[in-house]
Design goal:
72 residues, mainly beta, four-stranded antiparallel sheet, globular
Length: 72
């Protein structure tokens, strides 16, 4: 699992192809996404985008602003 921690959220990519978003204070699962492949490297955020590379060579770009809106 690769995790990225921000002020209010924890983003974690899993070997079974999910990206989970947790509330940092409570650990509550806020949302999750199926990326279709195991997360192969560390997650990163740039501006309003969260990037994840999966083992099939796909780079996923998700709107971090929207993810933050779930709990942060």
């Amino acid at each position: 699992m690769h995790a990225l921690v921000t002020e209010s959220l924890v983003y974690a990519g899993t070997r079974d192809g999910r990206l989970v978003v947790l509330d940092r204070a409570t650990g509550k699962l806020l949302t999750e996404y199926n990326l279709g492949g195991s997360v192969a490297s560390a997650l990163s955020i740039s501006g309003d985008w969260l990037f994840a590379l999966t083992d099939d060579g796909t780079i996923h770009a998700l709107a971090a602003r929207q993810l933050r809106g779930h709990g942060g």
